[in-house]
Amino acid sequence: MSNFQVVAEQFVQFYYKTFDESRGQLAALYRDKSMLTFENQATLGAAGIVEKLTNLPFQKVAHQVASLDAQPSNEQGGILVLVTGVLLVDEEQRAMSYTQAFQLVPEGGSFYVYNDVFRLVYPASG
Amino acid sequence: MSNFQVVAEQFVQFYYKTFDESRGQLAALYRDKSMLTFENQATLGAAGIVEKLTNLPFQKVAHQVASLDAQPSNEQGGILVLVTGVLLVDEEQRAMSYTQAFQLVPEGGSFYVYNDVFRLVYPASG
C-alpha cells in the first residue's frame, strides 16, 4: 500500500474519532490558512473552523466511514482524501449519508488539513 | 463571487455535459500525470482515464448536480471541487447518488484535472 493511502487512513480514523469524542480538539489539525466549507458555509482559519464545528447543533455524533479514497495532490507530499459515510446525531434513529473531501499538507513530519469540504448527501428520488 | 468559484462552476457544467454527450472528449481535460479513482479503481494518465471512462458499462448517462463546493487548493491557483449529485444510466428508472472530487490545476490560461475521485453514495440504512 502506498504511503499516502496509509496516511489518509490514519488521518480519517483519527479525525472522526476526535470529532465524535471531543470535536474541540480538532483545532490541532487546522492552521490559519485552512479552509472549511460545511454545507455551503465557508470558514477560514483554525479558530473559526473549530468554533463552527463545536457550535454545530448536536451534542452527540457518530460517523461511520463507508469508503475512503486517496491520491497525491501535488509533488510536495499533499494528499487528497475523499470519504463517504453515514452519521447519526443525538437520539435521531435515521442515519444520514455524507461526503467529505480533505486536502492534507505535510508539515514537520506530520500533516495538517488545508482543505475540508463537507456535504450531506440526500437519497436520490428518481 | 470569487474567481475559483466561477471556474469550478464552468468546469463542472462542461465536464458533465461532455461526459453525458460524448465522454471520449473528456481526454482534453486530463494530462499524463492526472489521476482517476473510480469506485476504488485507480488509473494514471489521460489515455488510461479516457479508456476507463469510455468503457464504463452503459451507453447513456445523465448527471444532475445537486451541490458544488470549491476552495483554492494551493497558492499557485489550484482549485478543489466537491460535487454531489444523482445520475441515471441507460433505461434504469432509479437515480443513484454520487460524489466526485476534482483538483483543477492552472495551465496556460485554462485548467486541467489533476485529481478525480468518483464514488456512488448508497442510501443510509440506519
UniProtKB/TrEMBL annotation, chains A, B:
UniProt cross-references to InterPro entries, sorted A to Z: NTF2, NTF2-like_dom_sf, NTF2_dom, Nuclear_transport_factor_2_euk
A Pfam family of this chain: NTF2
Biological process terms in GO annotation: mRNA transport; protein import into nucleus
PANTHER family, sorted: NUCLEAR TRANSPORT FACTOR 2
Keyword Disulfide bond on entry: no
Keywords, sorted A to Z: Cytoplasm, Nucleus, Protein transport, Transport
Location within or outside the cell: Cytoplasm; Nucleus
Lineage summary: Eukaryota, Fungi, Dikarya, Ascomycota, Pezizomycotina
Organism (species): Rhizodiscina lignyota
Domain annotation NTF2: ranges: 7-120
Keyword Cytoplasm: yes
Protein name: Nuclear transport factor 2
Domain of life where this protein originates: Eukaryota
PROSITE patterns per UniProt: NTF2_DOMAIN
GO cellular component, one term: nuclear envelope
Coarse class of the protein's main subcellular location: cytoplasm
Function, in words: Has a role in nuclear-cytoplasmic transport of proteins and mRNAs. Facilitates protein transport into the nucleus. Could be part of a multicomponent system of cytosolic factors that assemble at the pore complex during nuclear import.
